[in-house]
Amino acid sequence: MGIIQKVKSVFSNHSETRDHHENPKLQTHYYKSTASQTFTQVQNLLKNMNGVEILAAYEERGEISLNVSKGRKAFVVITIISLRPFETAIDFSVTTESKVIPFDFGYSKELIVFFYKYFDQHLIAIK
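RE: above sequence
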């Protein structure tokens, strides 16, 4: 990742994942499960987390939106997509809230990394 991308990631209030992200930590993670099973598992994991409030969950669209208040406040959209039988992708879009400054010093990125580590411990990750 170049210096410009590093600066942009620090001076931003939004981060998201994708397949071919320039930052390897923000590349999509894949799990060995159906989309329905993954959706249920993710929803159950989120219900048991402190500082996480599920706002809406739409299984037919594969989206879960939530508020996170772990230190700073953030709005998170988790997208769960079935690629083929027993291969499901999870992507994130995270926007932080700030009343004073318009950037989060990388907090949105670190929140994604935190969620991926947590999901990798509880779901069967495809490497």
